[in-house]
């Protein structure tokens, strides 16, 4: 007997984007959406259309580009949110409106300041309205984990009657444990009289490190949709990670009575792309997509794997896309090969000029690094996108001197709004000296929250990928830079972060504000 399908709902572009500093541009969101489509994700939550004009445009652009996956926008249970979501989704071939309201006593009393009856009415009204605009409507009871079961059952029964086709049960605060979460899902499906008319879904946060375990417990108890993100990105400690959910179900077919449509060979390329765009590095020991996930260090393990791979490996690295980044291009590759490979990676050039500019960057890189991998190409396109967004501050030149016994010194020239300025500064190391020089020139008054360097590929000629996270006046941004020289990569990342800090970008946050249904 064939198994039931587990719907994979990816919310990297919405909940994932709520991670500090992970805000993405419209182009970046489209690139990730196309990668998710290649991964064969069933539903892509592209954003929260009413949050800002930028969010609206991004949802609309994703709706225009994606053809196979369902494109979804989040909306609170008020008229304006739902209409805006429907408007942004208008170009989609397959669309979903996802409306939500909190149902726990603490959220209703302290945040919404609404009575349970008013919440129930708002939910019903929202679903009815959404159904006039889309046949596919999801309803989420925010903070379901701390909601009263009787009230949850009433709300879910009423919204299914009003037309909701998917019912999502979120552990918004990452509070549950697997046995309890599985039991909650089972009991909701049993107690809600019309439960068979909707698909049951779960959405778990990772505050206690149990998001994946809780989601899988829900699946074992009847959930047929899991909401998750690439690399587990998301609000606070993140969401359930897509790659862990998918590979658990695939690897343990003996215990799961469901299967997914996901093309697992796209997992690692997609993880790399999300990491490069958001500036969130993947920890080396992260399951499935971490650099060490398939590395065997101990002699006993190495010996076992050589004799028989399955002694220590439950999955094959190549099945999740490791190694699919084979050496692709070199110094002698032509423009057509370059374009073809980037198109295979989901990137579309909008003009010949854009292609020419990216190709020039590729030739520059090929002069410094003779083997170019897919990750290099993806980073190159990310940098070309950054350059095109007309950043007011750009690096003109820099030199950093570090010598034993002397304090490192850096000389940096920047173009600030078209004017070139140069300065020199000292620091505890060459990177510190470069940052001090940049700070002297631009006086960003920001606080450095994170500085991290990763190799994009292996080898000493690999490009270093630097993430710089800066904070100012409550705003947090990630800047990204890559170069074969990590001090230059650091300077680029710092400048990119300052430009992002200065860019306008106030946006609403779905879980923070609420305007009651008029
Ligand atoms: O965590 C949460 O409750 C959410 C909802 C909007 C689904 O993200
Ligand atoms: Zn969430």
How would the blueprint of this fold be written?
Blueprint: E1 4-5, E2 7-10, H1 26-38, E3 43-47, H2 53-65, E4 70-76, H3 79-89, E5 95-102, H4 105-112, H5 116-133, E6 137-142, H6 149-162, E7 166-171, H7 178-191, E8 199-204, H8 211-220, E9 225-228, H9 242-251, E10 258-259, H10 267-278, H11 299-307, H12 335-344, H13 352-368, H14 374-388, E11 393-401, E12 409-416, E13 419-426, H15 430-442, E14 447-455, E15 464-472, E16 475-483, H16 486-502
Helix pairs in contact: 1-2, 1-10, 2-3, 3-5, 5-6, 7-8, 10-14, 13-14, 15-16
The structure holds 3-methyl-2-oxobutanoic acid and zinc ion.
Q: Outline of this structure?
A:
This protein is an alpha/beta fold.
Give keywords.
518 residues; alpha/beta; Double Stranded RNA Binding Domain; 3 domains; 8-stranded parallel beta barrel; 3-stranded antiparallel beta sheet; globular; disordered C terminus; binds 3-methyl-2-oxobutanoic acid; binds zinc ion
Question: Could you describe the 3D structure shown?
Answer:
With 518 residues, the chain is of the alpha/beta class. The protein folds into 3 domains: 4-278, Alpha-Beta Barrel (TIM Barrel), CATH 3.20.20.70; 326-387; 389-502, 2-Layer Sandwich (Double Stranded RNA Binding Domain), CATH 3.30.160. 39% of the residues lie in helices and 20% in strands. It contains 16 helices and 16 strands. It has an 8-stranded parallel beta barrel with strand order 2-3-4-5-6-7-8-9, surrounded by 8 helices. It has a 3-stranded antiparallel β-sheet with strand order 11-12-13. Helix 2 packs parallel to helix 3 (79-89). It is globular, with a radius of gyration of 24 Å. Mean pLDDT is 91; it is low at 514-518. Bound molecules: 3-methyl-2-oxobutanoic acid (KIV) and zinc ion.
